[in-house]
Amino acid sequence: MEKKAVLLVNLGGPQSLTEVKPFLENLFLDPDILPFKSNPWVRKLFAKTIALLRASTSKKYYQAMGGGSPLRKITELQAETLQFQLQKVDPSFSVYVGMRYWKPSLEEAWCHILRDETQSVVILPLYPQYSFATTRSAYAILDPLIQKSPQIAVQKIDSWYEESLYIDAWVEQIRAEIERLPKRFQNNYDLIFSAHSLPVKCIEEGDPYARQIAETIALVLKYLPAGARWHLSYQSQTRFMKWLMPSTLSVMASMTQRSSRAVLVIPISFVSDHVETLYEVDVFYQAKAQELNFGYFKRIPSLNASPLFIGALQAVVLRKRQEVQR
């Protein structure tokens, strides 16, 4: 029986406070994260400097989240659940996890795939929308490994932002929170679709991320109550270059009649909880919402391992596998 694998690719995150600084160094070493030209020595020095400057602040964020990121545990749960569902269709499937900037690394995951004598692999980045800073960056590490493994048939997935079950998963989460709104906000709420920002330079060089985010939102809105007020914003910008705007905070600040309005934040570019949802939205933006006197402020729960989301991952994998059989 052919041994089939799925490699789930994610960002990774520190699981303890001692891991924060080396994680940040790995992150800022990536030329797709900070796209400026430099020789390796200068970039390494730059990454170490930024990591050193940001480590203290970042540790406070992770401390507020319990001392580390849950991203690895969530991704491993997604892998375990996806494998269970795939094996109902085909018992020869195994699912592996590889992280771009932390552990288990993409190289470690690939070694496990080789060790298990796998014949075919579907690589599925857990980034629905393609970006230079996420999907392309991951394949920059994986492509040399693939080239050294000609015995494995590899199918690469770039984006899956239009997958119907993925859209359904978001709609399910959003509609549930709308229904839970206090009665006085049932017809008076705003939806903020908050996506991770990206350097404008990337978009100018052809990165399709912003367009795919907009298309995802358009698909989600088709299944929400007609006339819902909504906004697109970007979060997690840094100071080093020009980033996609408007910021989520500026959108919040621009709203009027705040005390009589409810705001639901949809972390549209994030499928799993990490510092951007658990601290940036749940702690920092929540505090700002109180300062701005909003009547109600809540984040839509991330998809994590919800049944519809796992179904979306399964559908993406099986559709890709069908391409081999055509």
Descriptive report:
The chain has 326 residues and is of the alpha/beta class. It has a domain at 164-299: Rossmann fold (3-Layer(aba) Sandwich). It has eleven helices and eight strands. It has helices at residues 20-29, 40-64, 71-89, 106-115, 132-147, 164-179, 200-204, 209-221, 248-254, 275-291, 307-325, and strands spanning 4-10, 93-99, 120-125, 153-156, 189-196, 229-235, 262-266, 296-299. The strands form two sheets. A four-stranded parallel β-sheet has the order 2-1-3-4, sandwiched between helices. It has a four-stranded parallel β-sheet with strand order 6-5-7-8, sandwiched between helices. The protein starts with a strand and ends with a helix. The mean pLDDT is 95.
For this entry, give a set of tags:
326 residues, alpha/beta, Rossmann fold, 11 helices, 8 strands, globular
Low-confidence segments, ≥5 residues, pLDDT <50?
none
- Overall geometry comes to globular
Major sheet attributes = 4 strands, parallel
CATH topology grouping of one domain:
Rossmann fold
Residue share in helix: 40-55%
Mean pLDDT: 95
Secondary structure tally: strands: 8
How much of the sequence lies in strands comes to 5-15%
How far apart, in Å, are the first and last alpha carbons? 20 Å
> If helices are DSSP runs of H or I spanning 4 or more residues, what is the number of helices?
11
Summarize the structure.
With 326 residues, this protein is an alpha/beta fold.
Would you spell out the secondary-structure blueprint of this structure?
Layout: E1 4-10, H1 20-29, H2 40-64, H3 71-89, E2 93-99, H4 106-115, E3 120-125, H5 132-147, E4 153-156, H6 164-179, E5 189-196, H7 200-204, H8 209-221, E6 229-235, H9 248-254, E7 262-266, H10 275-291, E8 296-299, H11 307-325
Parallel strand pairs: 1-2, 1-3, 3-4, 5-6, 5-7, 7-8
